[in-house]
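Deliverable D2.4 — example input (structure tokens):
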């Protein structure tokens, strides 16, 4: 069947081409292996399956033999596949507000409807892996605890976790001591559920692998200090998947070695993610998952590289130290950007703007994620004065595309780039 005429018109207008990253093929394979292993563990009942928030104590869970599943990764998949819009209203009908995290509402709605993008991507997988335990860390937001609480009630599965501090300036010994104690308190129930005794040496091995992974991921993102930038923000949101779900494994380390080699080759050959790169931008806030391709193509057309972001840096854990695993884990998961105060955040962004030679900052005002939205209390205006570069706020959401206007966003972005050209 021939495509309808309007599709041909759209195809003719799409002059922007997203450059293929060769490492994508191997990444798809390791992600498939990861999900099939989780599915098998859940079906067979061994090893035990733990659900963990994305910046939760994954290394501790891995050291005790759990297979670890991350519902936020599933939430992102629901957004990227544009399935989320069908499921958010389902969760709203059971009393969860449309104003709370759309990862939460889309994921719970999908579970209620017994649907998942995993079954479409991976033949034979019928649903998300049933958990034996739910482990949270509220360093990102309280929503993750409410999210896991629903599953705990629904599936009659135990939930444990860490309650973190928020809006932190200096990270004091007292703050870290509180987190360390909470991490250590997780061990007895996790030993009972897993059937395995905690082994400090195994914990150190996992931490060492996570340290290698995070160092390589940091180096991958750091390649964008080169001009032209070899990797776009939109590419990075996809290629960060192993850093999220496979940290603590040799597989993740080997993958980022492969990706880093490819990006260094691009730099050597003067190849950028955006041909004829004219402007370099920072993306502050969550991705708009259902619009990654559209936005990527738009910025390519505008010869503007989105070369750095807060979001992708969230899985850089400089503090990891296998010699002192509990304290270093407490520090690493407490010093992430989302936990910090406004003063820290502004300096953090200012340093990246300087180091990556950026021309402007894009703030995503994410409707259902206030904890990872930083434009609402004057930060864009303060940074404009401090850095003497323009900012733009894009209204949208991570998963709920009802909050995003394609026409408005495109018009504002095009006007923003015109402003850069006139400066």
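Example output (designed residues):
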């Amino acid at each position: 069947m021939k495509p309808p005429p309007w599709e041909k018109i759209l195809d003719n207008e799409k002059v922007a081409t997203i450059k293929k990253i060769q490492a994508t093929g191997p990444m798809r394979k390791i992600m498939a292996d990861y999900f099939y292993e989780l599915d098998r563990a859940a079906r067979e009942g061994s090893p035990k399956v733990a659900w963990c928030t994305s910046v939760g104590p994954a290394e501790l869970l891995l050291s005790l033999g759990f297979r670890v599943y991350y519902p936020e990764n599933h939430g992102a998949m629901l957004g990227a596949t544009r399935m989320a819009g069908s499921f958010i209203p389902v969760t709203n009908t059971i009393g969860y507000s449309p104003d709370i995290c759309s990862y939460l509402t889309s994921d719970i709605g999908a579970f209620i409807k017994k649907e998942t993008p995993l079954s479409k991507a991976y033949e034979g997988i019928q649903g998300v892996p049933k958990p034996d335990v739910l482990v949270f860390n509220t360093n990102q937001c309280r929503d993750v605890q409410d999210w896991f609480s629903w599953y705990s009630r629904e599936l009659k599965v135990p939930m444990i976790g860490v309650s973190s501090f928020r809006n932190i300036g200096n990270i004091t010994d007292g703050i870290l001591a509180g987190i360390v104690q909470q991490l250590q308190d997780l061990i007895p129930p996790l030993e009972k559920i897993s059937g395995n005794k905690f082994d400090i040496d195994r914990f150190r091995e996992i931490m060492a692998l996570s340290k290698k992974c995070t160092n390589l991921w940091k180096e991958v993102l750091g390649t964008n200090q080169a001009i032209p930038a070899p990797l776009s923000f939109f590419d990075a949101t996809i290629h960060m998947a192993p850093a999220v779900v496979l940290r603590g494994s040799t597989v993740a380390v080997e993958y980022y070695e492969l990706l880093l080699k490819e990006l260094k080759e691009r730099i050597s050959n003067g190849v950028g993610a955006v041909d004829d790169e004219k402007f370099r931008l920072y993306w502050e806030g969550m991705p708009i998952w259902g619009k990654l391709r559209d936005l990527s193509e738009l910025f390519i057309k505008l010869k503007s590289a989105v070369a750095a972001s807060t979001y992708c840096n969230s899985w850089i854990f400089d503090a990891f130290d296998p010699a002192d695993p509990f304290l270093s884990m407490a520090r690493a998961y407490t010093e992430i950007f989302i936990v910090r105060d406004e003063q820290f955040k502004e300096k953090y962004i200012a340093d990246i703007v300087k180091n990556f030679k950026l021309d402007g900052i894009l703030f995503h005002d994410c409707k259902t994620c206030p904890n990872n939205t930083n434009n609402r209390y004057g930060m864009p205006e303060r940074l404009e004065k401090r850095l003497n570069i323009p900012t733009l706020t894009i209204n949208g959401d991570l998963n709920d595309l009802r909050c995003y206007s394609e026409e408005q966003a495109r018009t504002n972005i095009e006007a923003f780039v015109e402003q850069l050209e006139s400066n």
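The CA atoms of residues 2 and 8 lie 10 Å apart.
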